[in-house]
Design brief:
CATH architecture: Beta Barrel
Distance between the termini: 37 Å
Shape: globular
Number of domains: 1
Strand content: over 45%
CATH class: Mainly Beta
Order of helices and strands: HEEEEEEEEEHEEEEE
Largest sheet: 12 strands, antiparallel, barrel
Length: about 240
């Protein structure tokens, strides 16, 4: 209970801080995105670059990934997303992750839960690139939470950073006729932090095509307090 309290309190404090630093402007329709990741524990959205799942990264076998995501737009906030993703295949060349997402405050109970999963080849194990196929937004309320989006992604890590590209397609009843699109993503190499208490910083940016509620692009910074704990913050542009 104490750990949970500290975890939620930390996120509340950081949300207030970044709402002040990245105050959204109506003119640009900016959405603030703050997320804390804790590895080797329990909660999760699928592995992502920033806004999208366009990454060949797969959680290692037996390693859990806790997420606590806050999305805010001026005074209006989307539900807080809490989840857990973990790797489930003990193989060197092929990996698979599965995850759960819950939303607080909840919409109807049956619509407040979603699952995600993906399977793929690790980079440089079979092919020069990492590649995977997966599902996100697997819901249980018909035409409300059953986004059931399929995505395929490929990526390569270079000295200049990690580059990825992919494609997704989801439920037309939720996304409309423009229910699919291209995705791209980028993660920079590690950047040494001049700030005491922050071990390193990574710049992230990605884009989700189409013309629907998920279509957006954004960028932000991962601030690593240790190898196991980091905070991601920045704007998302619809």
């Amino acid at each position: 209970m104490l750990k949970k309290f500290l975890f939620l309190t930390f996120n509340h404090v950081m949300l207030n801080l970044f709402q002040h630093l990245f105050r959204p402007r109506n003119k640009f329709g900016v959405t603030l995105f703050v997320s804390v990741f804790i590895f080797n524990c329990l909660y999760a959205t699928p592995s992502t670059v920033y806004w999208t799942p366009c990454t060949p990264y797969i959680q290692p076998y037996g390693v859990g990934h806790i997420t606590y995501d806050i999305y805010a737009r001026n005074a209006n906030a989307m539900p807080i997303t809490m989840g857990f993703t973990t790797g489930v295949l003990p193989y060197e060349k092929v990996g698979m992750e599965i995850g759960y997402d819950g939303y607080i405050p909840t919409i109807p109970t049956s619509a407040a839960h979603q699952l995600n999963a993906k399977i793929g080849l690790y980079e440089d194990k079979v092919l020069p690139v990492g590649i995977n196929i997966g599902l996100f937004g697997i819901g249980f309320e018909k035409d409300v939470s059953d986004l059931n989006a399929v995505h395929i992604d490929a990526g390569k890590t270079t000295k200049l950073g990690a580059f990825s590209a992919g494609y997704y397609s989801g439920n037309k009843k939720i996304l409309g006729d423009s229910n699919s699109g291209l995705m791209t993503g980028y993660l920079s190499p590690d950047i040494s932090s001049p700030i005491k208490g922050i071990k390193k910083i990574i710049f992230a940016a990605d884009y989700m095509g189409g013309d629907n509620s998920y279509s957006a692009w954004g960028f932000g910074l991962y601030a690593y307090f240790s190898d196991a704990v980091d905070l991601l913050a920045g704007p998302v542009f619809p």
